[in-house]
Design brief:
In chain A, 78% of the residues lie in helices and 0% in strands. By secondary structure, chain A is mainly alpha-helical. Chain A has one domain: Helix Hairpins. The longest helix of chain A has 31 residues. The termini of chain A are far apart. Chain B is mainly alpha-helical. In chain B, 71% of the residues lie in helices and 3% in strands. Chain B is built from 27 helices and two strands. In chain B, helix 2 packs antiparallel against helix 3, helix 8 runs antiparallel to helix 11 and helix 16 packs antiparallel against helix 18. By secondary structure, chain C is mostly helical. Chain C has two domains: 76 residues, Four Helix Bundle (Hemerythrin (Met), subunit A), CATH 1.20.120.1200; 38 residues. The N and C termini of chain C lie far apart (54 Å). The chains are: A mainly alpha, B mainly alpha, C mainly alpha. The interface between A and C is large, with 77 and 87 residues.
Chain lengths: 100, 708, 162
C-alpha cells in the first residue's frame, strides 16, 4: 500500500517546482504555467487526503480549484495579450512601473 | 444674608466687564468694518497716528473747521454713554459697599465674598473671591472714582479718534483688571488682575500702533513688567509652599503661628518679600525697572493719567501694603524697599529737571512720587504710603489731564519750549493744574503736603527710618517743587513761544474735559484733609480707617510692635512735638526754596538755565539723557541677551535641534533607500517574499509540532 | 500494483514539472505541462477519483493548455525577444527556499496519521455530484458567477482597445 504521506510528498514537490518556476522565470507565460503546476500540486493533496479520509469535500475542493485555475488562466492570458500589445514584451522584470 | 449691599460687591468688577462686552461688540461689529472700509480711502482728517506727531488723536480736531470732517456714527454716542456709565455705576456700588463696611465695628471690617471655586489641584484650593477691607476699599474708591473722571475726560479728549470704541474697550478692560487686582482675596486672583492691567497697559501704550515708537514703548513696558511678574510668581510659589494657601486672610492669620513654630524664618520671609518687591518695582516703575514708564507716555494722555499715574503703577505699592505682615518680618527687605524708594525718588526727580516734553516731566515725577510711597512702606509707614497713593492719584491724574488739555489746545504740541503764556488761553486748565502743582510741591494745606510730610516724618522717626532717608526724601521734595514750577512757568507764564499757526487755534477744552479737571482740583486741594496728623490738630481719620489692616498684623510680628507704635501720636516711641513741627517747617522751606529757584531761573533770569547748562555741559548732557540708563541697559542686558540668544539659535537650535530633526529625516530617508529595494516592482521579488513567509510559517508550525 | 503505478506516474509528473519550469521556449513548457497534467490525472484514477481525472484531462489539458498554446502562437514572440534568464541572488535564494519548503512539507506530512487503505469512493461522478449539489450548492453557484466574470474580463481585456 502507498502511504498517504507519499501523496502529500508528491504534492509538495509539484507545488515546490511550481514555486521555483514563479520565482525564477522571467517569461510571463511560463510563470502562468508554473502557477498551474502549483494548483495541480494542491489538487493532488486534496484528492488524496479526501479519498483516504473518505470525505467527499476533498473532491469538491479539487473541482473548485480547477474552476479557479481555468478562470485564472483565461484572465491571465487576456492580460498577457493586452500587455504584449502595449509593451511588446513578455519579460516580467520589465514590468515594474508600480515601483513608486 | 445680612450683608446687604455688600453681597453685590461682585458688581464692582463685573460692571466694567459688562462695558468690555458691550463696547467690544460695538468695536467688533460696528466700528471695525467701518474703519476697514475707510482704510482704502484718502481721508482729509485721517487717523491720529498718521500725523506722525506726538500724542494726539486729533491733530486736526483743534481746528474748528476740522470738526465737520468726521461724520459721527451713532455707535460713538452709545460707547460714550456705556463706557463711563459702567465705571460710574461701579463707583456708586463701591461707595455703597464701603459705607456699609464702615458701619461695622472696626475689627469686623473684612468682608470676603467667595464667588466660585476656581482652581482645585491637590492641596491647592483657590476660590475666585473678593475681599473688601479698609485697604481694598480705599483702592477700589480711588480706582473707580478717578477712573470714572478719566473716562468722562476721555470722551472729550478722544472724540475725534477713529478707533473710539476700541479705546473704550481697552479702558473698560483695564478697569475690570484693576478692580480684580485690588478686590481679590488671594494672591493668585490678584495676579490675574496684575497681568490683566499689564496687558491693558501694553494695549493702550501701543494704542496708536501704526506709530513705531508707540508700539515699541508698548513692548518695552510689557517686557519690563514680565521681569517683575516673574518675581511675583516665584513669591506666590513660596507663599503656597510655606502657608499652604494663597488667600490673604489665611496666610496672614498663619503668620504668627508659623513664626513661633520656626517654619517662617526671617530668611524665608526675606525671600518672599524681595520677590514680591521685584514685581512691585516692575509694576510701579522703581529702580531698576522704571525705564518703561517714561516711554509709556506714547499712549493717549488720559491713559497716562489713569494707568501710568493714578492707578496701575500704584499696584506695586498696594501689594507691598497688602503683604505688610510679611514685609515686617523681613527687616532686610524693608531696608531695600526704603532705600530703593528713596533713590528712585531723588534720581528720577533730577531727570525731571531737564526734560522738555511736558508729559515726560510728569512721567519722571510719577516715578519719583512712587519712590516716596515705597520709602514710606520701607520704613513701616504703610498708612502713609497708601495715603500718598491716594493724594497722588488725585493730583497726578489732574496734572496729566491738564497737560492733555494743554496738548489738546496746542494741536498736539508737547514740547514745553514751544509753549508759554498759555494762562490766558486755557484758564480752567491753568487754575486746576496750578492747584495740583501746589499740592505736589507740598504747600501746607493741600493734599500733597499732608501725605508727603507724613512720609518724611516717618522716614525720620520710624525705627526703620533714618535721618539720611529723610534728607534724601526732603531733597527730592525740593527738586519736585522746582521742576513742577519750572513746568508751570514754562507752560503758562512768560511770553508765548508758540508756533503762530498753533497759537491762533489755542482754545479751552470742552466741558467733558474741564469738569473732571475741576473735580480733581477740588480733590487735590481737599483730599488730604482726611489725614491731617494729630500734631496739627487733625483727627487723622485716614490712619484710623486703615488701622485694622496694618496694626493687628504688625503687632503680631517680632518687629511689628515698634513699627505699629511708630504710627502717629499713640506710638510707643515718642518724639517731641517740636521736632515734628520743626521738620515739617524745614520741608516746607525746602519746597519753597525749590519754587523760588524755579521762579528765579524761569521768570526773572530766563537766560540763566542755558548758562548753567553751558557751564557744565557734561553734567547737563548726562542728566538730559536720563543718565544714559536706557543705553546702559541696552549695552549691559539687551545686547547680552540678544548675543546669547543668537548664540543659542546658531549653536543649539541650528546645529543641535535641527540636527536631531534633520537626522531623523535622514535616517528615515536612508532606511527608505534600503527598504525601497524590497519593493522593486519586479514580481519575482514579491513572489520570493511570499515564499519566504510561507517557509517561515511552515517552519514555525513544524517547530511547534516537534516541541509538542 | 498501486505502488508501482504511483511511482511511475509520480515520476512522470515531477519530471514533466521540472521540464515545464526549465524550458526556454514556452511552447515546450506547454507540451510538458500536458504531460504532467495527464500524469496527475492518472494519479487521480489511482485514488478512485474518476470524475476529477476526467475533468482534469478535459478542462486542463483540453481547455487551459490549449488556451496557452493559442496565446503562444497568437503573440508569437520572436526568438531574439524572449527574455534572457539570469541567475540572481533572489532567484538563487528562491530555489533554496522552495527546496526548504518541500523539505518542511515532507517532514510535516509524515507526522500526519491517516487511515491508509483502498481508496474510498469519493471522487466518482456520483459522490462529487451529490456533494456539489447538496452541501456545496452555494459554492457551486458562486463558482459559476466567477467563471462568468472571468469570461467577461477576458473578453474585455483582449479587445483591441482597452
Amino acid at each position: 500500500m502507498i502511504e498517504p504521506s507519499a501523496y502529500l510528498l508528491l504534492s509538495a514537490i509539484l507545488f515546490g517546482i511550481g514555486v521555483v518556476g514563479v520565482v525564477t522565470r522571467k517569461n510571463v507565460l511560463i510563470i502562468l504555467m508554473s502557477v498551474e503546476l502549483m494548483l495541480n500540486g494542491v489538487n493532488v493533496a486534496f484528492v488524496a487526503v479526501g479519498s483516504f479520509l473518505g470525505d467527499a469535500a476533498g473532491g469538491v475542493f479539487a473541482f473548485m480549484v480547477m474552476t479557479v485555475a481555468a478562470a485564472e488562466a483565461a484572465v491571465g492570458l487576456a492580460l498577457l495579450i493586452a500587455l504584449y500589445r502595449l509593451k511588446e514584451t513578455i519579460d516580467i522584470t520589465e514590468l515594474k512601473v508600480l515601483k513608486w | 444674608m445680612v450683608n446687604g449691599i455688600l453681597d453685590y460687591l461682585w458688581l464692582v468688577p463685573a460692571l466694567p466687564l459688562l462695558g468690555v462686552v458691550l463696547n467690544g461688540a460695538i468695536a467688533l461689529f460696528a466700528e471695525r468694518p467701518l474703519l476697514l472700509k475707510e482704510a482704502g480711502l484718502p481721508l482729509a482728517g485721517g487717523h491720529g497716528a498718521a500725523h506722525g506727531s506726538h500724542d494726539d488723536a486729533h491733530g486736526t480736531s483743534s481746528h474748528g473747521s476740522a470738526h465737520g470732517h468726521h461724520e459721527s456714527p451713532a455707535y460713538r454716542k452709545l460707547v460714550a454713554l456705556i463706557a463711563p456709565g459702567v465705571v460710574g455705576a461701579a463707583f456708586v456700588v463701591a461707595l455703597l459697599c464701603v459705607l456699609s463696611l464702615a458701619s461695622r465695628p472696626a475689627d469686623g471690617r473684612t468682608f470676603v465674598q467667595i464667588l466660585f471655586p476656581w482652581i482645585q489641584a491637590g492641596s491647592l484650593l483657590v476660590p475666585a473671591g473678593l475681599q473688601l477691607d479698609p485697604l481694598s476699599s480705599v483702592m477700589a474708591l480711588v480706582v473707580t472714582g478717578v477712573g470714572f473722571l478719566i473716562h468722562v475726560y476721555s470722551v472729550g479728549y478722544m472724540s475725534h479718534e477713529r478707533a473710539f470704541a476700541r479705546y473704550f474697550v481697552y479702558l473698560n478692560l483695564f478697569m475690570f483688571a484693576m478692580l480684580t487686582l485690588v478686590l481679590a482675596n488671594n494672591y493668585l486672583l490678584m495676579f490675574v488682575g496684575w497681568e490683566g492691567v499689564g496687558l491693558c497697559s501694553y494695549l493702550l501704550i501701543g494704542f496708536w500702533y501704526e506709530k513705531q515708537s508707540a508700539s515699541d514703548a508698548g513692548k518695552k513696558a510689557f517686557v519690563a513688567n514680565r521681569i517683575g511678574d516673574f518675581g511675583v510668581l516665584l513669591a506666590m510659589f513660596l507663599v503656597f509652599w510655606t502657608f499652604g494657601s494663597l488667600s490673604y486672610t489665611e496666610v496672614f492669620a498663619k503668620v504668627p503661628l508659623l513664626r513661633e513654630s520656626g517654619v517662617l524664618t526671617t530668611g524665608l520671609a526675606t525671600a518672599i518679600t524681595l520677590l514680591l518687591f521685584l514685581g512691585a518695582t516692575g509694576k510701579s516703575a522703581q529702580i531698576p525697572l522704571y525705564v518703561w514708564l517714561p516711554d509709556a507716555m506714547e499712549g493717549p494722555t488720559p491713559v497716562s493719567a489713569l494707568i501710568h499715574a493714578a492707578t496701575m503703577v500704584t499696584a506695586g505699592v498696594y501689594m507691598v501694603a497688602r503683604s505688610s505682615a510679611l514685609f515686617l518680618l523681613a527687616p532686610d527687605t524693608m531696608m531695600v524697599v526704603a532705600v530703593i524708594g528713596a533713590i528712585t525718588a531723588i534720581f528720577s526727580a533730577t531727570i525731571g529737571i531737564c526734560q522738555t516734553d511736558i508729559k515726560r516731566v510728569l512721567a519722571y515725577s510719577t516715578v519719583s512720587q512712587l519712590g516716596y510711597m515705597f520709602l514710606a512702606c520701607g520704613v513701616g509707614a504703610f498708612t502713609a504710603g497708601i495715603f500718598h497713593l491716594v493724594t497722588h492719584a488725585f493730583f497726578k491724574a489732574l496734572l496729566f489731564l491738564g497737560s492733555g488739555s494743554v496738548i489738546h489746545a496746542l494741536s498736539g504740541e508737547q514740547d514745553m519750549r514751544k509753549m508759554g503764556g498759555l494762562r490766558k488761553y486755557v484758564p480752567v486748565t491753568f487754575f486746576t493744574m496750578f492747584a495740583a502743582t501746589l499740592a505736589i510741591a507740598g504747600i501746607p494745606g493741600l493734599s500733597g503736603f499732608f501725605s508727603k510730610d507724613e512720609i518724611l516724618w516717618q522716614a525720620f522717626s520710624s525705627p526703620h527710618g533714618s535721618p539720611v532717608l529723610w534728607g534724601v526724601a526732603a531733597a527730592a521734595a525740593g527738586i519736585t517743587a522746582f521742576y513742577m514750577f519750572r513746568l508751570v512757568f514754562l507752560t503758562f507764564f512768560g511770553d508765548s513761544r508758540m508756533d503762530p499757526e498753533v497759537e491762533k487755534h489755542a482754545h479751552e477744552s470742552p466741558w467733558t474735559m474741564t469738569v473732571p479737571l475741576s473735580i480733581l482740583a477740588v480733590l487735590s486741594v481737599a483730599g488730604g484733609w482726611v489725614g491731617i496728623p494729630a500734631v496739627l490738630g487733625g483727627s487723622n481719620f485716614f490712619e484710623h480707617w486703615l488701622a485694622p489692616v496694618f496694626h493687628p498684623v504688625a503687632a503680631a510680628g517680632a518687629h511689628g510692635a515698634a513699627a505699629a507704635g511708630a504710627h502717629g501720636a499713640q506710638g510707643a516711641v515718642h518724639h517731641p512735638v517740636v521736632l515734628e513741627i520743626g521738620l515739617m517747617a524745614l520741608s516746607v522751606a525746602i519746597a519753597l526754596c525749590g519754587i523760588g529757584l524755579a521762579y528765579f531761573l524761569y521768570r526773572v533770569r530766563t537766560g540763566k538755565p542755558d548758562e548753567i547748562a553751558a557751564r557744565w555741559p557734561n553734567l547737563y548732557d548726562v542728566v538730559y539723557h536720563k543718565y544714559y540708563i536706557d543705553e546702559f541697559y541696552e549695552w549691559a542686558v539687551i545686547r547680552r541677551i540678544v548675543n546669547f540668544s543668537t548664540g543659542l539659535w546658531q549653536m543649539f537650535d541650528a546645529l543641535f535641534i535641527d540636527g536631531i530633526v534633520n537626522g531623523a529625516a535622514a535616517l528615515v530617508r536612508a532606511a527608505g533607500e534600503r527598504v525601497r529595494r524590497l519593493q522593486g516592482g519586479v514580481v519575482g521579488g514579491y513572489a520570493f517574499s511570499l515564499l519566504a513567509g510561507a517557509v517561515l510559517l511552515v517552519g514555525y508550525i513544524l517547530y511547534r509540532s516537534v516541541v509538542q | 500494483m498501486e505502488p508501482v503505478l504511483f511511482i511511475l506516474f509520480g515520476a512522470i509528473a515531477v519530471c514533466g514539472a521540472i521540464m515545464v519550469v526549465t524550458r526556454k521556449h514556452p511552447m515546450a513548457s506547454a507540451l510538458y505541462l500536458i504531460l504532467t497534467l495527464f500524469a496527475v490525472a492518472a494519479l487521480f484514477v489511482l485514488r478512485q477519483a474518476h470524475f476529477l481525472a476526467a475533468v482534469q484531462v478535459i478542462v486542463y489539458a483540453g481547455a487551459v493548455v490549449v488556451l496557452f498554446v493559442f496565446v503562444i502562437m497568437l503573440i508569437n514572440v520572436p526568438e531574439n525577444r524572449m527574455p534572457v534568464e539570469r541567475v540572481t541572488t533572489v532567484r538563487f535564494l528562491g530555489v533554496i527556499a522552495a527546496g526548504l519548503f518541500i523539505l518542511e512539507s515532507a517532514v510535516l506530512a509524515r507526522r500526519f496519521s491517516m487511515p491508509k487503505g483502498p481508496a474510498a469512493e469519493v471522487g466518482t461522478v456520483e459522490a462529487v455530484g451529490r456533494a456539489l449539489f447538496t452541501d456545496y450548492l452555494l459554492a457551486f453557484e458562486v463558482t459559476s458567477v466567477l467563471l462568468l466574470s472571468a469570461v467577461i474580463g477576458a473578453i474585455a481585456l483582449a479587445k483591441k482597445k482597452i
